[in-house]
Amino acid sequence: MSHITIALIIVLTIIIIPLILVIMHNKQIRMRENSMLSFFKKVAFVHNFSFTGQEVLRNTVLGLDGPKRKILVVEEKNKNYDSHIIDLDEVDSCKVKKIYAAININDYKQNRPEEYLQSIALEFTFKTDTQPLSAYFYRNADNSLYEIRELETRVRNWETMLSKMLKVKTLSSIS
Question: Do the Cβ atoms of 52 and 62 come closer than 8 Å?
Answer without folding.
Answer: no
